[in-house]
Write a structure and sequence with these properties.
mainly alpha; 0% strand
């Protein structure tokens, strides 16, 4: 026991004192401590020399303190993880509230308010393609007609990113089709609308039927007024096929 006490005194970290690995579980820490307790607890050394009992007492206290330190560390780590989960849930809830308020403002034609709300939603949940798509759509709605040519390629790129984040969202696919339609990229618009229709987007089905009819009759849908020339896509053809190549269960966004 004297020798073990000297070894303990040379050790600094709690896991080294008790004799477990750095990533030891709570059960392992408790099991090793119980083994020490059976060996060192003063009640187990009655009748032993006083110096031996004293040394064993010091050793027992050192092991107990190490055990308590390790268990407190485990509790702290668990608490941090729980707080992280709670924070993520709260952030998601707050983002959803901003999204709902943004959509309501959009429906009322309050585009500036809608953009502010949706921008906050995207900042809190940047991987949510539905949020990003609605923000991009509002930004398009706020773009003056005279700036369509300059702004549309960037907006389409953002909408494609939203579609990559949420490839099962009929709404995102529909909005992408609407931007392609504004750009007069009718083939890309039709592909996006077709993907959206497969994802149960009714509004996309209507647009798809309109495009199909006009393509057959040779009458092309008009781009928004104020656009004097087709806008260059600025993106490689084929990206829509990669985004929507695996259609599955529709996403509400």
């Amino acid at each position: 026991i004297d020798q073990q006490l000297k070894i303990m005194e040379q050790r600094g970290a709690a896991h080294e004192i008790i004799g477990v690995g750095l990533q030891a579980s709570v059960d392992e820490v408790q099991r090793v401590f119980d083994a020490w307790a059976r060996k060192l607890h003063p009640d187990r050394l009655q009748g032993a020399p006083d110096d031996l009992r004293t040394a064993a007492g010091h050793l027992f206290i050192a092991v107990k303190d190490a055990r308590d330190s390790l268990l407190n560390r485990e509790k702290s780590q668990a608490q941090v993880k729980a707080e992280d989960v709670l924070t993520a849930i709260q952030r998601a809830q707050e983002a959803e509230i901003e999204y709902i308020q943004g959509k309501r403002a959009l429906d009322l034609g309050q585009l500036e308010t809608a953009e502010d709300c949706l921008r906050r939603a995207v900042s809190m949940e940047p991987q949510n393609g539905g949020y990003l798509a609605e923000l991009t759509w509002v930004q398009f709605r706020r773009t003056p007609e005279s700036q369509y040519i300059q702004q549309l390629p960037g907006l389409i790129a953002e909408m494609q990113r939203a579609a990559q984040l949420s490839p099962k969202s009929g709404r995102v696919a529909y909005l992408l089709g609407m931007l392609f339609k504004a750009q007069r990229s009718m083939r890309d618009a039709e592909q996006a609308f077709r993907a959206a229709a497969q994802l149960d987007s009714r509004e996309a089905g209507s647009e798809l039927r309109l495009l199909t009819t006009r393509r057959k009759t040779g009458v092309h849908p008009q781009a928004p007024s104020g656009s004097k020339a087709p806008v260059q896509a600025g993106v490689r053809r084929g990206i829509l096929g990669r985004i929507f190549s695996r259609l599955g269960k529709p996403d509400s966004r």
